[in-house]
Amino acid sequence: MKLSKELTTAALAILVLTVVLGIAYPLAMTGISQVLFNTKANGSQIKQDGKVIGSQLIAKPFTIDTGKKDSDGNPITRPDPKYFQPRPSQTDYNAAASAFSNRGPNSEVARFFFRDALASYLDLERKYNPGLTAAKVPVDAVMTSGSGVDPDISKANALIQAHRVAAVRGIPLDRVDKLVAEHTDGRFLGVFGEPGVNVLELNMALDKTT
Amino acid sequence: MVQGFVQIALFFGLIVAVTPFLGGYMARVFRDDRTFLDAVAGPMERFTYRLLRVDVSRGQDWKAYARGVVFFSLGGWLLLYLILRTQTLHPFNPEGFHSGTWDLTFNTTSSFVTNTNWQYYMGETTLSYFSQMAGLAVQNFVSAATGIVVAIALIRGIIARRSHEPFLGNFWQDLVRACFYVLLPISIVGGLILVSQGTLQTLGGTVAGLARGPVASQEVIKELGTNGGGFFNTNSAYPFENPSGLTNLLEMFLILCIPASLTYTFGRMVGSRRQGWAVFSAMAALFIVGVVVVYLAELHGTPAQHAAGVHTSAISGSTGGNLEGKEQRFGIAGSTLWAAVTTVTSCGAVNAALESFTGIGSLVPMANLAYSESVFGGVGTGLYTMLLYVLLAVFIGGLMVGRTPEYLGKKIEAREIKLVGLGVLITPLAILFASALALGTKYGAPSIWASARPQGFSETLYAYMSQANNNGSAFAGYTGYYQPNPGNLGAHGITFADLVGGVTMVGARFIPILFVLAVAGALATKRAAPAGAGTMRTDTPTFVALLIGTVVLVGALTFFPALMIGPIAQGMTDRLF
After folding, report:
1. Residue B157 in 3-state DSSP?
2. From CA B173, how far away is CA A210, in angstroms rounded?
3. Which of A22, A197, B226, B539 has the smallest C-beta neighbourhood within 10 Å, fewest atoms?
4. How far is the CA of B8 from the CAs of A192, B130, B335, in angstroms?
5. What residue spans of B402-489 are helical by DSSP H?
6. B 547-566 residues with CB below 8 A of A?
7. pLDDT at position B163
8. Is A13's CB within 8 Å of B172's CB?
9. What is the pLDDT at residue B480?
10. What is the pLDDT of residues B518-552, one digit of tens each?
11. From the CB of residue B437, how many other CB atoms can be counted at a distance below 10 Å?
């Protein structure tokens, strides 16, 4: 008898707490957030001509279709030299299904990945940065991020790419550098986190000014 | 590097600063004293008791209290399993996701009911908003509350003063108060701060290829309750969960604040704040060593990066180091501090890929798991596990000086020490047994070869260390069987890994809880003796050192041979596999 009462209490408890914590709480939070922080709560969307093209917080690739296809039938793309390039992504910047790259520290496969990433970065940038060597390539340019959609690159990475972007667009380098500085997020309170340059916002600002 | 250490030091300072306030508040909550939230939470609390038809003025002995824990968790398990298996019938499913398979759902359900949040499932591609909110997030609250109240029951057992009825409190009252006075208010405030920084909180579906959902309300309790199950597959590395340096700080703070503060709650409830700070100091020492090691390790690149010709030293405008699997906005310091925070506690949320850490860097999360959640640990679980170690240290210390061991006036005798020993050893046993099963049988062995030998071994060992410690972080390359493709889609449909993992989580969560409550029950019946000249003091640096020694001895040495084969082997060589 007593045992069945305890079981009933347990069942009631989980049901009541589900209603409070699992339905009332998240819905109330959604309501408050939608009113107070509408833009942020909905994903800090970036619109172009009234259409959502992405989010301030999520990296997007800036590539050109080469017209060729690989053996799986997927189009082969190359980085668009007019634009700043985000960090490499193991998920091809997929914002609907994220995954880690899981490259172990002593992995032979990882070595090939890093070697190729380094080579393609140097390929793209060296023309515009005479004297650019592996020693000057910042780590974020050749290593994939955790989320696969890291919106930021390091300042060092942005300043190297600025040479290319300025040359291809035919605008003065100091104007590009100024835009880079404007789109660099500092640390919280000057202490927490690392500075990063938001690639999508920077590229949109570039398009607007030229 | 200096900048990184400043971040780490300030973060820790923040934790030390909040401990007396939150700890003192929780002591008031669980002593049923007045709090500033009474006006709001009080009516909710009383209304809940009416709905449950419980009389919370009636105390429970340890067996009744344990029945409450077990029945409530069982009820939660069944409801969550049902929700995940009938996902197609519920509202808030804008993507029209299917229901889970039986084996994966078994694992996920066990994972959330045990406060583990091991993620074999993929959040944004398989779970509806309803499953996330009413299923997973509810367990994020109540499994955390369960951990807290078991710790509180143990404290009550220690302070019980020779009553005829050795009561540990009332489970239902403690559960409801933990939810309504501690977890929910902090979640509301913290969640809104997260949203203000860019964490999502919407019921709208995917827009322009961006998966969305009610993230912040779940993110905040996932950290606060040391649960760790992310809305998105890459967890707190994903910008919609953790968008900035500020949110990274806030989330780390949320993870550590309750486990740290509970030491103070303990001190207040036993009537000696020094006792609380002694426990805190032992935890802090082990934590700080871990943070420093992992931060320094990750400032260097990996052998694979060096072999590829990548230079990983700092240059102007870049910190250098091993940034593979880490986000630019957190950097090396923000990612390594998080890794230490999430593995000392039983949180397991990650903001970087642990698998991609250097060999020595990944040794730290593993060593933290080897301490069995005693270094701050999960909410509540950390304190009660550490108190088991305290009793063990008192016993060992007593034997060394030749006195009857006693703690806070209670004699520690054969029965208690047997229960303590079992409680401490269950988790390591579960880990070694499950890992051996996975490594030694044809069902699990191929995963070693799929991921470059020592790394494959580390993945397997870590998977069971994480699940048995109810942590939930992963070397995410582990699939339990084989690597379906290099992109890694997790262990979907790998029944073996789902089942072994699920059983490990449940066993290593509830069996120790039963031993802890049994210890509480045994202590509650004892007559308290005043401390005399012959009493070994337990609030001195000497005792803290003895306690640290006990934790390291039991925890780390149990796993030393296994750690040699995995992370240490990789940390000592530049060879690639």
Report:
1. helix
2. 65
3. B539
4. 9, 37, 11
5. 414-440, 446-450, 454-468
6. none
7. 62
8. yes
9. 64
10. 999 999 988 888 877 778 889 999 999 999 999 99
11. 16
Name the token pair of B498: 């789902």
Say whether B328 and A55 touch across the interface (CB within 8 A). no
> Which of A10, A55, A107 comes nearest B72 by C-beta?
A10
Burial environment of residue B252 by CB neighbours within 10 A (0 to 12, 13 to 18, 19 or more): buried
Per the CB < 8 A criterion, the answer to whether A56 and A201 are in contact is yes
Angle at A90 between CA B479 and CA B468, to 5 degrees: 30
Tokens found for residue B174 = 């403690």
A17 Cα distance to chain centroid: 37
ipTM of model over 0.85: yes
Tokens (6 digits) for B552: 């390291």
In Å, what is the CA distance from B406 to each residue of A33, B402, B414, B430, B531? 52, 12, 12, 30, 9
Q: Is B120 on the interface with A (CB under 8 A)?
A: no
Write down the residue that tokens 């250490």 correspond to. B5
Option in B138, B211, B327 nearest A18 (CB): B138
Residue pair B60/B68 in contact by the 8 Å Cβ criterion: yes
Amino acid at B307: A
With CB atoms and an 8 Å threshold, state whether A42 touches B204.
yes
Place of tokens 């369960």: B146
**A30 vs B: CB within 8 A:** yes
Largest CA distance in chain B: 73
B371-388 pLDDT, tens digit each = 888 999 999 999 999 999
- Residues in B touching A87 (Cβ below 8 Å): 328
In the stretch 52-81 of chain B, residues with CB closer than 8 A to chain A read 52-54, 64, 67-68, 71-72, 74-76, 79
Q: What is the pLDDT of residue B452?
A: 65
Do the Cβ atoms of B304 and B576 come closer than 8 Å? yes
The secondary structure element, H or E, covering residue B196 is helix B184-197
Q: Name the residue of chain A whose CA is nearest to B74's CA.
A: A10
pLDDT tens, B6-25?
999 999 999 999 999 999 99
Q: B385 CA to chain A: closest CA distance, Å?
A: 25
B238 to chain A: nearest residue by CA?
Answer: A147
Asked if the Cβ–Cβ distance from A192 to B245 is below 8 Å, we say yes
What is the distance, to the nearest Å, from the Cα of residue B133 to the centroid of all Cα atoms in its chain? 20
Query: In which region does residue A99 sit, left (phi positive, over 0), alpha (psi from -120 to 50) or beta (all else)?
Result: beta
Q: Quote the percentage of chain B above a pLDDT of 90.
A: 70
Q: Which residues of B touch A144 (CB under 8 A)?
A: 324-325
Q: Between vectors from CA B30 to CA B19 and to CA B506, what angle results, nearest 5°? A: 85
A109–chain B nearest CA distance, Å: 8
Measured between alpha carbons, how far is A111 from A103 in angstroms, rounded to an integer? 9
**Interface contact flag, A29 B239, Cβ < 8 Å:** no
A10-14, long-range: CB < 8 A, 24+ apart:
A10/B68, A10/B71, A10/B72, A10/B74, A10/B75, A11/B75, A12/B51, A12/B52, A12/B53, A13/B52, A13/B72, A13/B75, A13/B172, A13/B175, A14/B72, A14/B75, A14/B76, A14/B79, A14/B138, A14/B142
Whether A152 has its CB under 8 Å from any CB of chain B: the answer is yes
Give the CB-side neighbour count of residue B323, counting CA atoms within 13 A.
33
B interface test, pick of A115, A132, A147, A149 with most B CB neighbours within 10 Å: A147
- Indicate the average pLDDT of chain A: 92
Of B487 and B283, the one with more pLDDT: B283
pTM of the model: 0.94
Asked if B310's CB is within 8 angstroms of A139's CB, the reply is: yes
CA distances for B237 relative to B94, B118, B149, B234, B394, angstroms? 24, 16, 31, 6, 41
The alpha carbon of residue A107 is apart from the nearest alpha carbon of chain B, in Å, by: 5
